[in-house]
Design goal:
The chain is of the alpha+beta class. The chain is built from six helices and seven strands. It has a five-stranded mixed β-sheet. It has a two-stranded antiparallel ribbon with strand order 6-7. Helix 2 links the parallel strand 2 and strand 3. 21% of the residues are buried.
Length: 270
């Protein structure tokens, strides 16, 4: 039996996006880079969000143990690895707080700033900080995005990280598969469409915000569609200009223009 090759899914995309963003970040300990819940500010850390973070961590640990057992060839059920979220200590959960507090200000970057981000240096993805609760239930920062070095003696940096090789290959696969769709594959400039889409993903790929959506596949597909459409409209505009020049010189334009002219003549009243 031939095993069908797996295509991309949101889980794998989210994992590689997370790993890519971590390369631009700095954390106190190794386990501080994995968050359990995303919140808009530290004030949102309360009994309800702590409980939800524990549940999220329990689900993550359960899936991780299940996948490890399946990778070893064991025939098991995911329910066999259930974790009681009530037994998880609240000091063990990590909160991702979406904030610009550690991002330098950039006055004048926007003429009419409308958001908090407009007042700060532009980043390649929404900045964040990771927090844990200490024994006194005080939120302590254990990680910062766009940061190089220690949290106290480090500095802001947005150029020391990189997109993981696997995520880059995912970008290429998405553009390749999208270019084979029936409504795009017939164009002679299909390669240019794919190249522009790949360039677009390289620029905005990490801007995906996990706090607003868990569907990066739809986000990337929309970006690819816009890139393909942009190239198509540009090529149509250039072709129209070439046809105008050929017609003004008394030469035959493209078959598309000839067909349009014939249809126009046939529809004209006698």
């Amino acid at each position: 039996m031939i095993k069908r090759k797996k295509y991309l899914n949101n889980r794998d995309l989210l994992k590689e996006i997370h790993l890519s963003k971590n390369t631009y970040s700095s954390f106190v300990n190794e386990n501080d880079d994995v968050y359990d819940i995303i919140l808009p500010n530290v004030e949102k850390i309360n009994i309800r969000t702590i409980a939800q973070a524990k549940r999220n961590q329990a689900d993550r640990l359960q899936k991780k143990a299940y996948e490890a057992a399946r990778a070893e060839g064991q025939k098991v059920k995911q329910a066999d690895f259930a974790v009681d979220w009530k037994k998880i200590d609240k000091q063990d959960v990590v909160f991702r707080i979406m904030t610009h507090d550690h991002i330098p200000l950039h006055p004048g970057r926007k003429k009419s700033p409308k958001t908090v981000a407009d007042h700060h240096v532009q980043c390649n993805f929404p900045p964040f900080q990771h927090f844990r609760l200490d024994e006194s239930d005080v939120a302590v920062c254990v990680g910062k995005s766009h940061w190089d070095g220690g949290l106290e003696n480090g500095n802001f940096s947005k150029a020391h990280g990189k997109t993981t090789n696997k995520l880059a290959r995912m970008y290429m696969k998405l553009c390749e598969r999208y270019g084979t769709r029936s409504n795009w594959r017939g164009y002679t400039y299909n390669d240019e469409m794919r190249s522009q889409a790949l360039l677009q993903l390289a620029q905005i790929g990490l801007q995906f915000d996990e706090s607003k959506s868990e569907n990066p596949f739809a986000y990337y597909t929309a970006a690819i569609t816009n890139s393909f459409t942009r190239v198509l409209n540009l090529e149509k505009k250039n072709q129209s200009i070439r046809d105008d020049i050929l017609e003004s010189a008394g030469l035959n334009p493209s078959y598309t223009r000839q067909t349009e002219n014939e249809l126009k003549k046939s529809s004209d009243p006698i």
